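Escalated from tier 1: flavin mononucleotide holo job.
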Amino acid sequence: MPTQPKSTPEVEAIFRRSMAALAAGVSVVTGMDPDGSPRGLTVTSLASYSANPPSVIVCVDETCNSYGALAAGKHFAVNLLHAGQPEVAKLFASGAADKFDHVNWTVWNGCTPLLVDALGVIICSRATTTVHGDHAIVIGDVIDGSIRPAPPLVYWNRNFHEGPGHLAGSERQCPQ
Ligand SMILES: Cc1cc2nc3c(=O)[nH]c(=O)nc-3n(C[C@H](O)[C@H](O)[C@H](O)COP(=O)(O)O)c2cc1C
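Tier 2 regenerated the structure:
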């Protein structure tokens, strides 16, 4: 087990301030527990990983309720949120057990929950999960997706904001 460098309050403070300065798109990552319960959480840790194969990473807290579904499931979905969805972001940033009772959702291919009103959806086949510290990096190969023209939801300085615009001519229907 590799040893991790010791942090200090000063380092933690500059880390938090730097992350507050970083504007990030907001997504809800969703997956299914083995018993068929939908799981999902709000993230800003989504990033493009490789172009060949097209893949993404997302970082997931080991203590969250969605961890098992995302870190060990076969598939997961990234639901990109649009500027009109700060309440969805807040809902999925809560630990509430009934999150999916308050949104329109469907199930892709019988296995992965999707938020139907999202700006876009990226469906992934989970490639690998790597644990570092108290989070896991989950890598997913992109296998399907949809996108529609709307401004994105952005998180900056500990608040939600409307993104700068939308991609023209980008509409594609939500996969089933
Ligand atoms: C803007 C924002 C971004 C977040 N990004 C992440 C993230 O990238 N990874 C993560 O594990 N938690 C992140 N969180 C925290 C989770 O959304 C939160 O812990 C949630 O309650 C987990 O839900 P669950 O326990 O039902 O899975 C974020 C929260 C907010 C408000």
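The pocket of flavin mononucleotide is lined by residues 26, 41-45, 59-61, 64-66, 93-95, 155 (CB under 6 Å).
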